[in-house]
Amino acid sequence: MKMKAAVLWEPKTEWSVEEVELDPPKAGEVLVKLVGSGLCHSDEHLLTGDLALAEETQQELGIQQFPVIGGHEGAGEVLEVGPGVTGLAPGDHVVFGFIPSCGQCPKCSTGHQNLCDLGAYLLAGRQVTDFTSRHHARGQDLGLMCCIGTFGEHTVAAAASCIKIDNDIPLDKAALVGCGVTTGWGSAVYAADVQPGETVVVVGCGGVGMNAVQGAAMAGARHVIAVDPVEFKQEQAQIFGATHSSASLEEALALVGDVTWGTMADKVILTMGVAQGEYIQPALAMTAKGGRVVQTAVAPFTVESVSMNLFELTMYEKQLVGSIFGSANPRRDIPRLLRLYQEGQLKLDELVTRTYAIEDINEGYQHMRDGTNIRGMVIYDHAN
Ligand SMILES: NC(=O)c1ccc[n+]([C@@H]2O[C@H](COP(=O)([O-])OP(=O)(O)OC[C@H]3O[C@@H](n4cnc5c(N)ncnc54)[C@H](O)[C@@H]3O)[C@@H](O)[C@H]2O)c1
Ligand SMILES: [Zn+2]
Ligand SMILES: [Zn+2]
């Protein structure tokens, strides 16, 4: 079939919305009609080159990263299933987990589906079933961001990437839980393990960070301090449960000292647009003895230098931990978070500032760079 999708032909260019040829699903794969896709900063990393593998690395691994269809935060309806797919049928509604979860590898089978072995193929972008492409344009095979490629009207992806949800949940809202919501909420609830009465700082309040704010509030934090240079984000953070806000890490240091009477923050969660090594020491400096910094924001591949005071790390038993997909299990947590939404305890509607047609995706990303969106979302118009 033919459909429209946003393709990135090489880093440091724009998304090109064009006709893409899509093959039917093969064994273990599913054809999905997308309803919506969130504009997450991780696709922007692909565009800026932060996540672009060096040419030599691609050759070594035997993969070709570009051209690639972007998008990894989406939901839609199953139209067709390939041979051998069980548990999914045409008409089912699914959210894509941006990490496949096979259910059988050592990490999946011990309750860490966010670390599924199939995650190794996320940037290779081919089908994890047989490492070939179902998407083609201009006579070339296309890769898929996170092996799903939600910046298209339709996609074919492995059943391992599909989480079935109840059919009465609006799919445009459900899409958000495929990345930003679960990543942010889980960064607070699982990775930071926020406890009632704690002081939590969230640094960077976009589509991911805003959900770390709501996760920390839901877990019972006493103070939730939202740090973002953009005033609009600071204001919006209050809707999601922030008790205080500040414009920078430096400003937040003084505020945290004030509200905790000098004992500092129990948990600091880093969710700014682009992670850098120089943010670690300021984050550790505002962390209490025995406290934890969670590194959720993605840094450019090449960042290896980090500033931190190792003496303080030891003496105060501070922890620095990474987190992918909020350390959540997609097959449990996606339906769980959507249940919280249905019962009015998790905010999803308030996260989407603007919606776009796929043709306007570059404008959507400009709004992200301008700081005017919490989350922008592409909505597919299948009537055209
Ligand atoms: N670990 C994971 O599993 C995972 C999943 C999704 C996204 N991410 C990453 O999380 C990060 C955030 O993604 P997003 O979609 O929310 O991005 P976003 O652009 O929507 O939000 C980033 C926010 O950070 C703010 N910011 C920028 N620099 C800052 C600074 N120095 N201090 C404080 N705030 C600052 C911006 O104003 C913006 O509000 C990105 O790096 C993204 O790639 C990680
Ligand atoms: Zn994402
Ligand atoms: Zn697995």
Please explain how this structure is put together.
By secondary structure, the chain is an alpha/beta fold. Helix content is 25%, strand content 25%. The chain contains eleven helices and 19 strands. The strands form three sheets. Strands 3, 5, 6, 10, 11, 18 and 19 form a seven-stranded mixed sheet that branches. The chain is globular, with a radius of gyration of 20 Å. The protein starts with a strand and ends in a 5-residue tail after the last strand. The structure holds nicotinamide-adenine-dinucleotide and zinc ion (ZN) (2 copies).
Compact summary:
The protein has helices at 41-48, 55-61, 171-174, 180-191, 209-218, 231-239, 249-259, 280-285, 310-315, 330-342, 361-370; strands spanning 2-8, 16-22, 29-38, 68-69, 74-81, 93-96, 135-137, 140-141, 143-144, 154-158, 162-165, 199-203, 223-227, 244-246, 265-270, 287-295, 319-322, 352-356, 375-379. With 384 residues, it is α/β, with parallel strands linked by helices. Strands 3, 5, 6, 10, 11, 18 and 19 form a seven-stranded mixed sheet that branches. Strands 8-7-2-1-4-9 form a six-stranded mixed sheet, with no helix packed on it. Strands 14-13-12-15-16-17 form a six-stranded parallel sheet, with helices on both faces.
- Overall pLDDT metric: 97
Distance between the termini: 15 Å
Report Rg: 20 Å
Ligands, deduplicated: nicotinamide-adenine-dinucleotide, zinc ion
Q: What's the total count of β strands?
A: 19
Shape: globular
Report strand %: 25-35%
What percentage of residues falls in helices of 4 or more residues?
25-40%
Contiguous runs where pLDDT drops below 50 for at least 5 residues: none
What's the order of the H and E elements? EEEHHEEEEEEEEHHEHEHEHEHEHEHEHE
Class by helix and strand content? Answer: alpha/beta
Helix segment tally:
11
Main pleated-sheet profile: 7 strands, mixed
